[in-house]
Amino acid sequence: MIDKNSGLLSLILGGYEITSYSKYKKAALSDVKAAFYVMS
Fold first, then answer.
1. What single string gives the DSSP state of each residue in 14-32?
2. Running along the chain, 40 residues long, what does each successive block of 10 average in pLDDT?
3. Cα separations (Å) of 38 from 15, 18, 31, 33?
4. H/E element holding 33?
5. Distance separating alpha carbons of residues 26 and 14, to the nearest angstrom
């Protein structure tokens, strides 16, 4: 029972990490695009 709860908790935390990482990745991607527009 403890293992199931900790697994669920890690799954939720992992989901938060994935969503925050994808948001960060999108923001970084838009920054790179902006830099390319400035250079060209």
1. HHHHHHHHHHHHHHHHHHH
2. 68 78 83 83
3. 35, 30, 11, 9
4. helix 2-39
5. 18
9: number of CA atoms within 13 Å, CB side?
Answer: 6
1-8: Cβ within 8 A, 24+ apart: none
pTM: 0.41
Residue 39 tokens, joined: 């250079």
Tokens standing for residue 7: 């697994």
CB neighbour burial string for 2-39, b if at least 16 within 10 angstroms, e if fewer:
eeeeeeeeeeeeeeeeeeeeeeeeeeeeeeeeeeeeee
C-alpha span between 2 and 5 (Å, rounded) = 5
